[in-house]
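Q: Make up one entry.
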Amino acid sequence: MIAHDTQSRHIRKKLKNRVIDFFTSESTHKIVRTPCGLGWPALILVIVLVSLTSLIPYSVPAQDVQVSEDALEAGKQYFTQGHFAKAAQKWEQAAREFEESNQPNEQAQALLYFSQALYNLGQYQRAGVTLNLARNLAVESNNLVLASRILGRLGNVAFALGLEEPAEAYLTDALAEARELEDSALVATILNDRGNVLASQQRYSEALGSFTESTVLAEAINHHSLAVTALINAAWSSFLEGDLSASQDRLDLAMTKVNLLENSHEKAQEFLSIGLAYTRIGQAREPSSQKLLRQSAEAFQQSAEIAHRLKDHRTASYGWGHLGHLYEVEGRLDEAMELTRRAIHAAQQGAASESLYQWEWQAGRLLRLQGNVDESILAYRRAVYTLQPIRHEVTRGFPVQSESFRSSIGPLFFELVDLLLTEADGATDEVMNQSILGNARRTMEQFKTAELQDYFRDNCVEASLSKKTNVDEIVKGLEHTAVVYPILLPDRMELLISVHNGQKAELKRKRVQVTLEILTSEVRTLRKFLEKRTTREYLPHAQQVYAWLIQPIRKYLTQFDVHTLVFVPDGPLRTIPLGALHDGQEFLIEQYALAITPGIDLTDPRPINREDIKLLSVGLTDSVQGFPSLPNVASEIQALTQLYGGRVLLNQQFQVDELEYEMKDERPSIVHIASHAKFSGEAKKTFLLAFDEKLTMDRLDELIGLYQFRDTPLDLLTLSACETAAGDDRAALGLAGVAIKAGARSALATLWFINDKATSELITEFYRQLQNVSVSKAMALQIAKKKLMSHPSYQHPSYWSPFLLINNWL
């Protein structure tokens, strides 16, 4: 530690003044027991486990912290064996004991350990809160080295949460402080972690510089494990930059160095990372390099055997599982299955759910290839069951590739649905057929729930699930309504239709021979031409999608006298307004009232309470924060208040504090927001424009989300000037989930920004129709659209089609 008092005070002042906005707690010293809160960050396969700082607790000089206490030592033992939950219990216990004995420095160290276990369990928000508390204690104890270490860890947690800019800022500041404190080990560690962030931002040259300096420093102080870690990360960075030769050279060097280390948990992890990197390079080369794949197999074998000897069941499961996958790819199914069973057993021994689901999934694939469909379905179901409650243990070190939830986890659900539909083909009676189709639909509901959890990364979806109503129960009392599930498989589209036959709900099924690639291309083209108001180029594409999506089920819609269609759209179908589909004579909206929902399990089926409507209307007519003015908003809001009365926040009145007051004190049942809103593929980049700031989805949740827990719900949230990027399925997912996020039964929103005057006319008519108790929300929107279509200036679907009714349609 630096002896110079002035320098020490300077660093301490900087630490105290730095505010960690993302991780705060009302308590300043009490042990934090917050809920996990964040739901699932993107659930990607755990493929790289290389950052030393995420695998083992930081070592602290003996003069700073005594680490001989039983709880601390027991926690370390559990941690190195991969038992993170048990380690967390022990370290939390130690922190509590240090608190009770008034040892803030030791408490801070125990909290740092505790946060490490939480991080490895995927409980990032809680880890951040714990680190913030530990940092305050370290600063108060004048342990500046520990405080800087904690700041670096906060950077890693922010990175795990996808907060790349704050992560880089924390790590940059921590690095500056570590250099100032002349702590080479800490500098080397933070350089490695900062390199991970830079590489994730595709700043590969800077990342390589950071990794290289980390390697050199770590070697200089004989921290060989950290040197190998930084070298492996540098190899990944070279791979992603496209320099396969440099990547392979670095891996070869890392392989040589790791063989010289004594057997340890870290060595097993590093072999695992090297094996994965060799696999990726081997697959990237044309033709695929057998030499590299053999090196991968050797590394996986070493990892599994070392971990097995150390009773690190979690790491052993990854070693055996990835080795099994290599055999799967080569078609050596019996050997692959034997290794996969070893991986499953090890994962079960280590209570490693984030590993177990992967190998159950792999077993399912292998069993299907071996022709054992029944056992394959059981393995897939075990994988899905295992996946449901877990939270993502983020890839340690920097992830090989940024993968979306859909591309990484989606195939598990879609492969299971494919198997179930294949099984339904052989059903011997209708009862069995209905049961199997019901299982397929429930699997899709599980996927859609998980995907929405991943997008919003919080507990809003769980709150909606607590009000879950079975789709059959919803349809049972709703004659003239059909719920349509398009299931988009790589080689075809399957349509499941839930209808009421007069006595009970039943499922119908149609197979459509169109590949996902062709369907996606057609949908993208349709979306592009729908926004082009000067031509009718959209028409042949609207007719083609109609032929795929509606024509095959028309006989059921006629047979069951369906008046309202509720779609649970998937993938690219979320990006288009289905009312604009065309049969050659008329648009779909002219035939049926329409609504969409991200999942029936997430739908609160109670109808709107028309007897006690309390309206809050807010909006902007002025140009604010660089966005264009909306001159017709004033007349739109005036028309609504004439219909329903209620309170109004217009222009300067539409500030976040005022909105918060109205939501908490007035408790409106309908909130109408006439302002710009942009939905992005990432929830954190999605916002709604207020006069004084941009309301993010999390901030909107704070203001409106309380309705999730109230007996009196928010019946309707209207966002009349939304935009989603064409071709961005994730942005459309966010739009579809906005009602869930806001705790509203229904939302009315737009896929793209429309003529301000057209919006005003359609919205006003929609609210006017809502006064009729015999008209559902879906019917009210249908009537409003048909009225706007009759206007000579607004016949093009660009004006009326982007309005979507989301979730409850009653």
Residues 1-21, 25-68, 391-401 have pLDDT under 50 and may be disordered. The first helix runs from residue 5 to 17.
